[in-house]
Design a protein that fits this description.
The protein has 412 residues and is α/β, with parallel strands linked by helices. The chain contains 13 helices and 14 strands. The protein has 3 domains: 39 residues, no CATH class; 107 residues, Enolase-like, N-terminal domain (Enolase-like, domain 1, 2-Layer Sandwich), CATH 3.30.390; 242 residues, TIM Barrel. Strand 8, helix 11 and strand 9 form a beta-alpha-beta unit.
Length: 412
């Protein structure tokens, strides 16, 4: 009998505090907590792959249309590139220059893990923690990782224990909500069939709320998607925090009936106790964490079985290093860490690299497309989805080169 079933079956004979006491007094659970705690502070980046100091001389931000690109340059002339979040950097570039860049200038890039602590403390940035701070940090971190990879002649995955897979299965994610079930089915076919995907995710609810129209759509769409794509297809659904506990249970049980893979964010993302109650009373795996900005809060969620799949967003959460720590905590607890992909840009590329070296990344990784059409070359991968799979670049750094003309535009 697993812990989730035990808690659910004892729900009628104990209060929440009693259930927590049972969980935390379990020696096996205490051991799990210690294993998780070890991964909060443990170093995850292997700086030994770069033999000599690499001093960051300059950090630039350029814009071409809606695309923002971070360029890091060393005193020896090495450069690294990363594409930021196309939506948020338009508002966040002052945060980038004023609060993120200063602690990195003149520092040894090999100390990236310590520099993340420095930037957190710089000018009391810990008071600014959240998406609006961590997106600029992640944008810089990816550029530094690209930069160090090129210096060492190593792929990003080599700095985190080595690449263990070069073919990544993806699920195609729908970004529509509120359309009629038949319209959504046609849209899902449109985005799934050209890439031969074997998994998909669609949206439920009305985003942080629900009403009669959204509920009727949900109840009709959940069985219709399964009927359309068949029993062998993997299906996930995301409520974006739309439900309270009773509606979460109603929708979740219907998803269980039709054998869905996971139920993402049934309750509002910061309703931790409500999400835990839903998880304890359902058998389907609950996924969540895309808005989470606290490493310690992820630890608490994992220790207390609030979710059974953790989903740090690689940009929202501050980059690969912090997300790897979440994945290691999840691994210690025996659950998957399947990152959320926000926006377009090169979000899919960052997810590819993460999944290339994380053993517990889950069956499929999120793919929302690459609609920004950034001109680049990648000698080791087409960066296209074929038969539901993408090939991870194996070149140095991120494994790509962006057209120099495209990155020659100064920020205006």
């Amino acid at each position: 009998m697993n812990r989730r079933n035990f808690i659910r079956n004892t729900a009628l004979i104990g209060t929440l505090s009693t259930k927590q006491t049972i969980a935390f007094s379990d020696p096996a659970n205490n051991k799990k907590q210690l294993m998780i705690d070890e991964n909060v502070y443990k170093k995850v980046f292997d700086k030994s792959l770069v033999k000599n100091r690499v001093i960051i001389e300059s950090i630039r931000l350029v814009r071409n249309g809606k695309v923002y690109i971070v360029i890091v340059r060393s005193k020896d002339g090495a450069e690294g590139y990363a594409v930021s979040h196309p939506k948020f950097m338009d508002a966040l570039w002052p945060v980038f220059f004023n609060y993120v860049v200063p602690p990195f200038i003149g520092k040894d890039a090999r100390e990236i893990e310590s520099l993340l602590t420095d930037v957190y403390l710089f000018d009391s940035n810990y008071k600014k923690q959240g998406l609006l701070f961590w997106v600029p940090v992640a944008s810089l971190e990816f550029a530094i990782l690209d930069f160090l990879g090129k210096v060492a002649g190593k792929s990003v995955g080599d700095f985190f224990g080595g690449v263990i897979r070069t073919e990544i299965d993806v699920y195609r994610a729908s970004e529509k909500r509120g359309n009629h079930p038949e319209e959504e089915i046609e849209y899902l076919k449109k985005i799934v069939e050209p890439i031969g995907a074997h998994a998909l995710k669609f949206r439920l609810g009305a985003r942080m709320r629900y009403d009669d129209n959204s509920t009727n759509r949900d109840l009709e769409l959940i069985p219709l998607v399964r009927k359309t794509f068949g029993d062998d297809f993997t299906i996930y659904a995301d409520a974006n925090g739309s439900y309270d506990i009773p509606m979460s249970l109603k929708i979740g049980r219907l998803m269980e009936e039709y054998k869905y893979g996971f139920f993402e964010e049934p309750c509002p993302f910061d309703y931790y106790e409500e999400t835990k109650e839903v998880a304890d009373r359902l058998d389907i795996k609950i996924a969540g964490g895309e808005e989470e900005s606290s490493l310690r809060m992820f630890r608490w969620m994992i220790e207390n079985d609030v979710v059974q799949i953790v989903q740090p967003d690689l940009l929202y959460f501050g980059g690969l290093i912090r997300s790897v720590k979440v994945a290691k905590m999840a691994l210690a607890a025996g659950i998957d860490c399947t990152p959320h992909m926000s926006g377009n840009g090169l979000g899919y590329l960052y997810v590819l690299h993460f999944a290339s070296f994380i053993p517990n990344c889950g069956l499929h990784q999120e793919f929302k497309g690459d609609n920004d059409k950034i001109p680049l070359i990648c000698p080791t991968s087409s960066l296209k989805v074929v038969n539901g799979k993408m090939t991870v670049p194996t070149g140095a750094g991120l494994g790509i080169e962006i057209d120099p003309e495209f990155v020659s535009h100064p920020l205006k």
